[in-house]
Design brief:
The complex is a heterodimer of chains A (458) and B (284). Helices cover 21% and strands 37% of the residues of chain A. Chain A is α/β, with parallel strands linked by helices and 458 residues long. The radius of gyration of chain A is 21 Å and the shape is globular. Classes of the chains: A alpha/beta (458), B alpha/beta (284). At the A-B interface, helix 8 and helix 9 of A face helix 2, strand 7, helix 3 and strand 8 of B.
């Protein structure tokens, strides 16, 4: 994997800083010990380099580990950047069928959690859910209260030794959130987790979601803020998801940092027998993103649908490495990533479907479609299959295209302006993935945000 | 040939020269269409009929090198159509039914048409301003689809995406019916249709057009003209309108083809042969 090179000459992420953090934290000793193991690994690792396949298309030359440090806690009442998913819309969705209009006003939330520059600023759960045994909120508090629910999974789902950023996150995670939904409890309203940054700030938040057998939940995580240029912020995060037997989770990760923020995230879900996961990644922001999104299907009939909606502009560079790992028989995974690129931006998707020998009757699919809105943008799609079982159906596809000037002309001939036509064509391009996202406010927010970003197509 | 239409408005084309990728296709076209009039435009493949349609609508690849297209309103005001963007042309009441309509995957026909109808009816609308109210739009669309014997489910499909040839043409007629332009160019709206469908299209166009619309029907066939008797029939050859006449001309061309025309206008016939050799994509 990562070639060890000389560690960065001086980083602020030292053992001394870690001990300082541990002394100031209410987290239990077992979790602090995990941090100490990670800081030891961190000390031995260098920044990922381009000999590593996962990083060969990521330009880290301008990333300097030295300049980052945690900001002091924000003053009470400090402004918190607003997330897209809860900004809400009072408009009513209209449907051609005359089906009752669907309200997209922000629904009541099951719980709210927000962190600013690595400090918890909102930590709430609906009391009726707490009474049902649902646990949600700050990890520092809840790991100690409910080790039974979280300890078996905490930093055991993602590999925290695989590279410098993973190790940094495992050692220095802060202002993290956890959710546990007990068996057979169904939560219909969404949980909301916001990670926010001020200009130049540092966020290392971790999210762990655990659904017991037959449980159901919806989790919306999103990022906001940071500076629009230069080193506008650093997010080095991780997400761990455990979907229990026959449980159903709808998970959304929306990355909407301002365009100066460096974003590194390692995200993995484990889905047990009969469990279902609908996992949507949205990406609109950041200066550079490197995201690993892994799904492991570990029990018979587990099902994962993975959706990606990316819009890049300016000089943004977004890199995704996805893995659909079929470890058990008769599981289904279906990944669809769609990206539209403007200006000189770059989008990379490298996907892998891995089927273990035991995973007969696997149904795996991966597809990546990109739409180039400028001649200077560039998209790379690298699908891959690694199959050890013999009775499987695994397919993949990738397309890359431009907006057709004849499409624009056709719409103009019907009275739409060139800009309106472009927005409609791009909206149509994303419709296929929007059709799969069953959370209306998420669909609406993404469509609106993308519509606002599209400029005249060149 | 410039009999004035009922509303006194005219689309006036004079000395129009059009080039595609540097290759001149139209070599001086004169044509005046009044509102309420039906004109037929016939001619062999590659003679420039579709090019005229695209040039009137303003396709960016069709470069007008000389001549003018003007919309003359009842009070005599002359609007320079060539100075307008294609969407502005649509908003002043010009419509082109495409021979090969473009598909827009992911965009429902109803949604597309709602934008379209809103803009054409409120030419000063800015993007982002309210669309036509859904209820009102829906009932009008359903009524129009009923008149055209179209299933209202059709409006939920993505614009021309996976449509058969016939479905595309019917969708074009539906848009014509919803937009009610002052001037419509129908580019082979009968091609790809079977005999019954052509008859239905012919009746529909007659009903939609009425006395308010000036229509230029580009066709190879007589059948579409059955319910839309042209005031004038024009024959295009080698990028020019070489002859105009009454309905009998359409009947003659249908029966006997273009040999007499080629023999009568050798210069245009030579231009036609020259164009064939340089293989400009027909209707592209």
């Amino acid at each position: 994997m990562t070639t060890a090179v000389a560690p960065p000459a001086s980083t602020p992420f030292t053992r001394d800083l870690l001990e300082l953090m541990i002394r100031g934290s209410a987290a239990p000793d077992w979790s602090s010990d995990l941090r100490r193991e990670a800081v030891a690994r961190l000390a031995a690792l260098g920044l990922p380099n381009r000999r590593d396949e996962n990083w060969m298309r990521t330009d880290l030359r301008l990333f300097k580990p030295a300049g980052w440090s945690f900001r002091p806690a924000p003053a009470a009442g400090a402004a918190l950047p607003v997330g897209l998913l809860t900004a809400g819309s009072t408009a009513l969705a209209e449907d051609f069928d005359g089906i009752p209009a669907e309200a997209v006003a922000p629904a009541a939330l099951a719980g709210r959690f927000a962190a600013l520059d690595g400090h918890v600023v909102v930590d709430e759960i609906a009391p009726e859910l707490a009474a049902q045994g649902v646990v949600f909120g700050s990890a520092d508090r809840l790991l100690a209260e409910r080790p039974d629910a979280f300890r078996p999974h905490w930093f055991s789902v993602i590999d925290s030794g695989c590279d410098w950023f993973a190790a940094l996150h495992a050692a220095f995670h802060r202002a993290s959130a956890v959710l546990y939904v007990p068996p057979r409890v169904r939560v219909t309203t969404p949980f909301h987790v916001l990670s926010a940054l001020s200009d130049g700030g540092l966020d290392t938040g971790h999210v762990l979601v655990v659904l017991g057998e037959g449980a159901e939940a919806t989790v919306l995580t999103e990022t906001a803020g940071g500076g629009a240029s230069g080193n506008g912020g650093l997010h080095c995060g991780g997400t761990e998801i455990v979907v229990g037997q026959s449980a159903f989770l709808r998970m959304v990760n929306l990355q909407n940092w301002n365009t100066g923020v460096w974003h590194f995230a390692r995200q993995k879900a484990v889905v047990h027998a009969g469990g279902r996961l609908q996992w949507t990644l949205g990406a609109l922001g950041s200066r550079l993103s490197q995201v690993a999104q892994d799904v492991a299907l570990v029990g018979r009939n587990a099902d994962a649908q993975v959706n990606g909606v990316m819009f890049t502009e300016g000089r943004q560079q977004l890199v995704y490495n996805t893995l659909q790992h079929h470890e058990a028989p008769a599981c289904k995974s279906d990944l669809l990533y769609k990206g539209a690129l403007q200006d000189r931006s770059r989008l990379v998707w490298r996907g892998m479907i891995k089927v273990d020998k035991a995973a007969q009757k696997t149904d795996g699919y991966q597809r990546n479609d990109n739409l180039m809105l400028s001649k200077e943008s560039r998209a790379d799609s690298i699908p891959g299959l690694e199959i050890e079982a013999d009775d499987v159906r695994c397919t993949h596809g990738a397309t890359s295209g431009r907006v057709d000037t004849d499409q624009i002309f056709y719409a103009q001939a019907r009275g739409l302006t060139a800009d309106e036509a472009a927005r409609l064509v791009v909206a149509g391009f994303f419709q296929q993935v929007f059709d799969r996202i069953t959370i209306a406010p998420v669909r609406e927010a993404l469509a609106r945000a993308i519509g606002q970003r599209i400029r005249r197509i060149s | 040939m410039t009999a004035t239409g009922t509303a006194g408005e005219q689309l006036v084309i004079k000395g129009l020269h059009v080039a595609v990728e540097g290759q001149e296709i139209l070599k001086g076209v004169d044509l005046t269409i009044g509102r309420g009039e039906i004109h037929a435009l016939m001619g062999p493949n590659g003679s420039g009929k579709s090019t005229l349609g695209y040039a009137i609508m303003g396709h960016p690849n069709y470069e007008v090198t000389a001549g003018s297209i003007e919309l003359v309103t009842a009070d005599g005001t002359r609007h320079d159509v060539l100075a307008m963007e294609p969407d502005e042309r649509a908003r002043v009441g010009i419509f082109l039914a495409f021979q090969r309509p473009m598909s827009i995957p992911g965009v429902r026909l109803a949604e597309f048409l709602r934008h379209s109808v809103t803009n054409v009816r409120n030419p000063d609308r800015k993007e982002g301003e309210e669309l036509m109210p859904m209820r009102e739009f829906r009932s009008e669309l359903k009524a129009k689809m009923g008149e055209l014997s179209m299933d209202s489910e059709f409006a939920k499909r993505y614009v021309n995406d996976g449509f058969s040839g016939g479905e595309m043409k019917r969708a074009e007629i539906l848009q014509l019916a919803m937009l009610r332009p002052k001037f419509a160019i129908l580019d082979e709206t009968d091609s790809g249709l079977d005999a019954d469908a052509v008859r239905l299209a012919s009746e529909s166009i007659a009903r939609i057009g009425g006395a308010e619309m000036g229509i230029l029907i580009i066709t190879h066939h007589e059948q579409l003209l059955e319910h839309n008797i042209p005031l004038r029939t024009h024959v295009m050859l080698g990028g020019r309108i070489v002859e105009s006449g009454g309905p009998e001309l359409a009947a003659e061309l249908h029966k006997k083809g273009y040999e007499r025309i080629r023999a009568t206008y050798p210069e245009a016939a030579a231009a036609e042969r020259a164009l064939e050799q340089t293989a400009v994509p027909v209707g592209a």
